[in-house]
TrEMBL record, chains A, B, C, D:
Name assigned to this protein: 3-hydroxyisobutyrate dehydrogenase-like beta-hydroxyacid dehydrogenase
Keywords carried by this UniProt record: NAD, Oxidoreductase
Species, as recorded: Mucilaginibacter frigoritolerans
Domain 3-hydroxyisobutyrate dehydrogenase-like NAD-binding: from-to ranges: 167-281
Gene3D superfamilies noted in UniProt: N-(1-d-carboxylethyl)-l-norvaline Dehydrogenase, domain 2, NAD(P)-binding Rossmann-like Domain
Length: 295, 295, 295, 295
């Protein structure tokens, strides 16, 4: 009974997360704009729904993993939105990368409807989602966390609690994505400096990635940047730019000048303007650096 | 016999390195502008010298670990410089953070004098030097590397070879220090964003430092930045600024626009202008971020 | 008959513009949030109104000069907004500094209501408004321009037509305000450079203002910046920041990386964060430059 | 007798200045690296010299207008430099765009030699030089100014005195060139914003150039930028970059963070890296802005 939950958003991340929940024995009430995407999943474990409202009917929890603030707001507040049907005392587990402002707005609506909203964005690329290696940040009510916990444990390697403020975990997610972009920028600059001085880019990347910068960000991205290996596209420049905008907007709302955010924002805006929106963000940033350097 | 080497520069790094060489059985011909600094070392294992030339007399290798390009040039080319006495076939192991330009200039002079120059800057703070945990980057002639290797093995946990170009290892060192500064900047911005949104700075730092950014740079500096813990001073803002200038100058010489270098350069120049030159560079950067944010 | 027009917004600019219209023989149907402000005007020439709708009733033209996009949207589209009463074939002369997006939205509503919308922002400070020295940029329908022309001629020294696109004149206004901010920034940097090198700031400002930069922006602001004369407050840093945000948002929407916009945006965001929102924008920028320089 | 002066440097500026001096009745002792350039001048009024020393022999004044600090230092201090022959009490009128540091160094040498050094850089393009419309900034000893005055009056429309510090006028010149570059950048950004929003670039440039920005910089450069008219080359991007470097170096030496200087520096460094060094600086900057905007 308790094993039936709603699930909205079968993108590169969502499809892997859904699979893990099915593996754990959950039955998913699925809504996706392109519902044929659900054909990849075990049909006995899912019910295809025609709207968010249908996916939310009768479940004690529903997960959303969608593109951006606007889509999420429509998914919750729209005519056929979650709020229309989600039972009292159920929880909406909101895993998309969105602004804290939107989380606060939606939390208010859920509270008024007698159910609850849990902010729970994740760190990790699709491979990490498939391997249950996501890092999940949560913030919100204790009760919502309690309901969500057994579900989220099937999706990642750790759940970190950032308090009760609904937007809290969004801030951490936005900050983290900014730090990843800034890391890509700094590596692109540094490795191009090496290249122009006759030093092997990859050798430098491997040195840093195995010593003072021996973290996944510098190891995995470092290799891609060093090799100018821009295929396959893991995360699009257009999505990176969306996140840079979120970071910039948050810096405005928080009244914090963040020059490094401006830098990566402008780098990715340049990528968009040059028509590179569909490239991997490593290309969007890395190629910007090398083209400006005349190589 | 072979165990007698020259050693110039007993700063925070040099004193620890000298101690490790003594522990390994070397006798050091030491020159330091403030020679009383040598009193901290075992007197039986050292000879205090009155000039670089005296320290270089009769040794097969001499290490320099001094403040900057100008001091090093004076140390080598000055009236009482190393070049006056260093025996043929000996090697000058140049471990300071300097420009590749200076390495090339000095290598030329050493070659003309019949001895050799090995670029070998290091990564690591004084504690790492004391613990023999430095990472040593080398570039230059094979013969020089062969002579230096048994000596350098007493100073660090790894020696990485960046080829035969004399300035090569300097470029890697400058790139790495830039990456550290940029990391401090991005953490300072991100954690201040968290703070202004009611999230605990340290909690965020610990999360990133134990997950996607689990590298020493983000763990050690991350904690200092999160706690605004600016004492004791490990590496002065004035020295960080010196390194930012080296990076900027190299970006000019290499014809690579490096906006992240401009950013950290201007951040540290602001610190200098505000009179914070003697603070730790974590303060020079971190306090700049928080003051601009009005906290 | 035709001499009765609506007028909304008695701020520093509006009050001077209203006075000039009264001097030209117009009777003004006035709405202002703080209606007591209208006491400064000749009571025989005005009618105080309780809502935008009341001010728009029976007029062939209505001028709005309000704080920002949100206030203007409420003024037009709100429950007691202009649209409720403005007669067919009348024109809304929209003189506030707002985004082109808002102009396009409002123009659509006016067209549907059978009347028209004329974008007509102005360049000039309150003194220029009082002296009928404003420069007025217009864009929109020819018919609307024809109706507005005899009215606008009482407010400025020139009306410049930027075509039929409703947002066109807004883009020019936003671009111009950005150029003013960037000019203030460059002067602040240059004159501080002079000061730190022992040269009189004012002498430099007067030299440039009377030779290659002999334009009002460099003459008037140049003197204020040189003298660090920040009183009286003519245009608040908070308003300058609002305009920097408009410019930044427009650069995003237009997909143009504008690093100089980022620069002035962050300078004014710093001013806001430091609590200088109510200072003149010359102080917001100029003091930021000198404080960063340690003076 | 007094009408014989030395003249070194027949570049685009120098050749026009030399012509004006000849027109005023002076006989010029000319040195230029490519001496054939002097063939364009009235041969009866000049003496071609084989070295700076020869040009300085027996004159009461000598003008230098050369490429950069290095060339000027060689011209004065070199083996066949001015200092070898310039008579006591004569004055070296130094009109090149150089650093204040170099002026101070040369002034010291001249003082030791019993003659004097007058810093006197100019504002104006070659056409202005030809039309005697230069603005001349001077700094240095009163005596030197008195000797130079009757000579300089034949070259420009005004001489402005910036005090006795030798580097003073250099600082003003560097600050001014920075302001011109920053103006070109801001116009390029603003007019590209107009273009992408469907507004005629030239119309916007003409509006600003005839109203609030009605100064030569915005009128002349404004038209070139608006029309993307990059030929003929008046002032090369490589020279603009040289001046941006001077400004940056001076900001370091003066301990003033100047973000607008960083911006134009990086813009021109990008131009150099992309191989546009020989284009006009309007192209170096303007094309950088449009390419980043994808047009």
């Amino acid at each position: 009974m308790e094993k039936k939950i709603g699930f909205i958003g079968l993108g590169n991340m969502g499809i892997n997360m859904a699979q893990n929940l099915i593996n754990a024995g959950y039955h998913l009430m699925i809504f996706n704009r392109t519902i044929s995407k659900a054909d990849e999943l075990d049909q006995a474990s899912i019910t295809k729904c025609k709207s968010p409202a249908e996916a939310a009917k009768g479940v004690h929890a529903i997960i959303t993993m969608v593109a951006d603030d606007e889509v999420l707001k429509e998914t919750v507040l729209g005519e056929e939105g979650i709020l229309k049907t989600l039972p009292k005392n159920s929880v909406h587990i909101s895993m998309s990368t969105i602004s804290p402002e939107t989380s606060q707005l939606l939390a208010k609506h859920h509270t008024q409807a007698g159910n609850s909203y849990l902010t729970s964005p994740v760190f990790g690329r699709p491979e990490a989602a498939a391997a249950k290696k996501l890092w999940i940040c949560v913030s919100g009510d204790q009760q919502a966390k309690a309901i969500a916990k057994p579900i989220l444990e099937n999706l990642g390697q750790g759940i970190v609690d950032f308090g009760e403020t609904h937007g809290g975990a969004n801030v951490v997610k936005i900050a983290g994505n900014f730090m990843i972009m800034a890391s890509i920028e700094m590596m692109a600059e540094a490795y191009t400096l090496a290249e122009k001085n006759g030093i092997d880019r990859l050798k430098v990347a491997e040195f840093f990635g195995s010593t003072i910068f021996n973290a996944p960000i510098f190891q995995n991205y470092g290799k891609l940047i060093a090799n100018k290996q821009y295929e396959p596209v893991g995360f699009k420049s257009a999505l990176g730019y969306k996140d840079a905008r979120l970071a910039f907007k948050l810096s405005q709302a928080s009244e914090i000048p963040m020059p490094a955010v401006s830098l990566v924002h402008n780098r990715l805006l340049t990528a968009i303007a040059k028509g590179w929106g569909d490239t991997d963000w490593v290309e969007g940033i890395g190629r910007g650096v090398t083209e400006d350097a005349g190589i």
